[in-house]
Every structure is written in C-alpha cells, then in structure tokens.
Amino acid sequence: MSKELTPQPRVDVKKALELKRFKHLSFAKIGKLQGVSPQAVQQALKKFDKVLLPAEELETYRDNKGDILESVEFELLNEIVDTDRVKKASLNNVAYALGTLGNMTRLEQGKSTTNISFKDMSDNYDEIKRERQQLEESLNDA
Questions:
Q1: Residue 120: alpha-carbon gap to chain centroid
Q2: What H or E segment, with its residue span, contains residue 6?
Q3: CB 105 within 8 A of CB 77
Q4: How far is the CA of 52 from the CAs of 17, 26, 43, 135, in angstroms?
Q5: So what's the pLDDT on residue 86?
Q6: Rounded to two decimals, what is the model's pTM?
Q7: Residue 4 has pLDDT above 80, yes or no
Q8: Do the beta carbons of residue 40 and residue 11 sit within 8 Å?
Q9: 72-88 pLDDT, tens per residue?
Q10: In the chain, pLDDT over 90 holds for what percent of residues?
Q11: Are 38 and 26 in contact (CB under 8 A)?
Q12: Is the pLDDT of residue 64 over 90?
C-alpha cells in the first residue's frame, strides 16, 4: 500500500509581499488567503526584511533621492580630500579618484566624458555625405 503525497500549497511570495507591504495584512490573513500557515508566509517573506524599507520610507527616499545622493556624494568628497587619507592612499587609488572626479565635473558642465576626435567626426560626416549623394544619384537614375 503506497500513500499518495498531496502537494502542499506554496506561498505566492510576490502576492504575499504586496499584501504585507501595501495592504498591511497580517501573516495570518495572508496565510488564510493563500491556504498556508502564517509561519509559512512569515518564513517566505523573512529574506526581504533585511533589504526592503517599509513602503512609506521607500516612497520618501524616491521623492528625495537626488538630495540624498548629493549629500552622500558631498560626504564622500570630504573623505577623498582628507589630506591624511590621501597620503595613505595608493597611487592607483588617487588616480582613480581623480579620474572619477574629472568625469563628474565634465558631466556637471554638460561635457562628454569620452574623447571624440574631430577628425573622426569629420571623416564620418564626409562618408555619410558620399553615401547620401550615391543614394540620391541611384534614385534619380531609376
């Protein structure tokens, strides 16, 4: 005689997370809706506790992200220009910081962070002009 195993209901993690975060339902209510125990719901959502901010805090972060990141950038800049730290840093680290700050400055000024040769641009433009002229000629011949 063999017993057939019936599949156990599984927690729909995506739905459970939405119900918990946005509807503020308890583990018991979510479990009841999904036909699983409250412990199963809690266990399934446990891994998100460490990485997800409460919905209200996350919304506040999104609304103020630019200011927050700018403040962090300013704090990091203060650390980078600390003369004691600079003296202890390797040449590679100093060069990397200099390059990163240079790119940030160029972007802030609306400039490119890559070197574009005027000659290359000019050659490409001339090539495009030639191709256009050939296309126009072939259309006129047709």
A1: 33
A2: none
A3: no
A4: 10, 17, 15, 57
A5: 83
A6: 0.46
A7: no
A8: yes
A9: 988 888 888 888 888 88
A10: 37
A11: yes
A12: yes
Confidence bin at 3 (pLDDT 50/70/90): low
pLDDT (average), residues 12-38 = 95
CA–CA distance, 42 with 13 (Å, rounded to integer)? 10
- What is the DSSP track for the chain? --PPPPPPP---HHHHHHHHHHS---HHHHHHHHTS-HHHHHHHHGGGTTTPPPHHHHHHHHHHHHHHHHHHHHHHHHHHT-HHHHHHS-HHHHHHHHHHHHHHHHHHTT--SS---HHHHHHHHHHHHHHHHHHHHHHHH-
**Fold topology of 9-52:** Arc Repressor Mutant, subunit A (1.10.10)
DSSP at 8: P
More confident residue, 118 or 92: 92
Q: Which two tokens stand for residue 137?
A: 């000629």
- Six-digit token string for 74: 């300013």
For residue 41, which of 57, 59, 55, 21 has the smallest C-alpha distance?
21
**Which amino acid appears at position 99 of this protein?**
G
- Residue spans in the chain of domains classed CATH 1.10.10: 9-52
The angle formed by the CA atoms of residues 31, 33 and 35, to the nearest 5 degrees, is: 60
